[in-house]
Design brief:
UDP-n-acetylglucosamine1-carboxyvinyl-transferase, Chain; four-stranded mixed β-sheet; binds phosphoenolpyruvate; 14 helices; binds shikimate-3-phosphate; about 35% helix; alpha/beta; about 425 residues
């Protein structure tokens, strides 16, 4: 397994940075572009391994998709033009591809088999399997279709009203996408609002959807039209450098053109509560998505308790928040975050293990973590464990460790942020 040595730095992070496009929006732009008739032009597409899986899935169904770095042109005849793939489709490491595509494949008139890497193969699909079966889907696979590989025999589906038992945008989106192909109306009622990019993008492609608080309703059998999509910078990628700047004394950075959709900005709220004084400036709106700049300076922070409705608004930011919490005054308590157990790794156990190996004092709980602040980090050898967000957390931790950090399996970072080390070097060079 590849390993890299990361040395502690005494250089602050400074300058301006544009992070790559949002992963969630990039996936959805490909999905809707492929379901729509005509041409869709996507700019600032995330050229990361996960989003390439979604492109390959539709190419396997006959859609013409030309991707050059962060520019993508999709040309589709729409839903009726999609063809049965001849071979099983590989979804790699991407949970979003799996949960959203299950919704799509369930309503297409052909058979598909899907599989993934070892991490994805362990992740639960029953959360989408169950509502999709209620709509009439034929899904089978390991553990009765809970685990990949999964075979889907596409069917005509009927709309349902569904209240997801977990707070998950992937589940909501899988059901809404199936609803788009189904007869009748589909309603999803969430207990807590999760990221709403599916709802926003459906409108951008000319679809009609009604959002009333946490209740989302759409009619089936809508036809969509290709369009132009500019993807905002990914706030979940920006989070690593925002926290990096808060950790390294003397840092002062601005992340430009990043997505500021309120269903994604939970980390910014928590950092402000901790005393970060971020300057957040909305500069434009593209469709229903807000875009802007975030300026952050090094600051001494205080611990807070993180729980409740903010959790889904920052679900991918917990590894990097946990690292930050090791350096603030007081004890940080994270609750209601049991969903972390179902990510690329069990992110409660994995974050606790990694940070404690580096010298921190972190305790895992059933639904979160308790992190002792102001604990010096020493260093050591730690693995990303095949989880891109853990790889980036370790790289940022190395900035403040007293000794060398050896990161095992750094290439996994390519899943969501292929230019991560270039951007880190650029911020250190100024
Ligand atoms: O819908 C999406 O694009 C995503 C939703 C979240 O997953 P859950 O829906 O499982 O919380 C998040 O962790 C993932 O990175 C992307
Ligand atoms: C959980 C993540 O992605 P996915 O579920 O798409 O694998 C993530 O990017 O942190």
């Amino acid at each position: 397994m590849k390993k890299i040595n990361l040395k502690p730095i005494d250089l602050p992070l400074t300058g301006d940075l544009s992070v790559p496009g949002d992963k969630s929006i990039s996936h959805r732009a490909i999905i809707f572009g492929s379901l729509a008739q005509g041409k869709t032009k996507i700019t600032r597409f995330l050229n990361g391994e996960d989003c390439l899986m979604t492109i390959k899935a539709f190419q396997a169904m006959g859609v013409k998709i030309d991707q050059q770095d962060d520019q993508v042109l999709v040309e589709s005849e729409g839903i009726a033009g999609l063809k049965e793939p001849l071979e099983p489709i590989y979804f790699g490491n991407s949970g979003t591809t799996a949960r959203l595509m299950l919704g799509v494949l369930a309503g297409l008139p052909f058979h598909t088999t899907i599989y993934g890497d070892l991490s994805l193969t362990k992740r639960p699909m029953d959360r989408v399997r169950d509502p999709l079966r209620e709509m009439g889907a034929k899904i089978d696979g390991r553990d009765d279709g809970n685990l990949l590989p999964i075979a889907v025999r596409g069917q005509s589906l009927s709309g349902i009203t569904f209240k997801p038992p977990m707070k998950s945008a992937q589940v909501k989106s899988g059901v809404l996408l199936a609803g788009l192909l189904a007869d009748g109306e589909t309603t999803v009622i969430e207990t807590t609002k999760t990221r709403d990019h599916t709802e926003n993008l459906l409108s951008a492609f000319g679809g009609s959807i009604n959002v009333d608080g946490n209740t989302i309703t759409l009619k089936g059998k809508q036809s969509l039209t290709g369009t132009e999509i500019e993807v905002p910078g990914d706030i979940s990628s920006a989070a690593f450098f925002i926290v990096g700047a808060l950790l390294v004394r003397g840092s002062h950075i601005t992340i430009k053109n990043v997505g500021l959709n309120p269903t994604r900005t939970g980390l910014l709220d928590v950092l402000n509560q901790m005393g970060a004084n971020l300057v957040i400036k909305e500069t434009k709106r593209v469709g229903k998505e807000a875009i802007g700049d975030i300026t952050v300076k090094y600051a001494e922070l205080n611990a807070v308790e993180v729980d409740g409705d903010v959790i889904p608004r920052m679900i991918d930011e917990f590894p990097i928040l946990a690292l930050l919490a090791t350096q603030v005054s007081g004890k940080t308590i994270i609750r209601d975050a049991e969903e972390l157990k179902h990510k690329e790794t069990d992110r409660i156990t994995a974050v606790v293990d990694i940070l404690n190996t580096l010298g921190a004092k972190v305790e895992g709980t059933d639904d979160g973590m308790i992190i002792e602040g102001k604990t010096p980090l020493i260093g050591g050898e730690v693995s990303s464990d095949g989880d891109h967000r853990l790889g980036m957390m370790i790289a940022i931790a190395s900035l403040i460790c007293q000794e060398k950090v050896t990161l095992v399996d750094p290439d996994v970072i390519n899943i969501s942020y292929p230019t991560f080390f270039d951007d880190l070097n650029m911020l250190q060079a100024k």
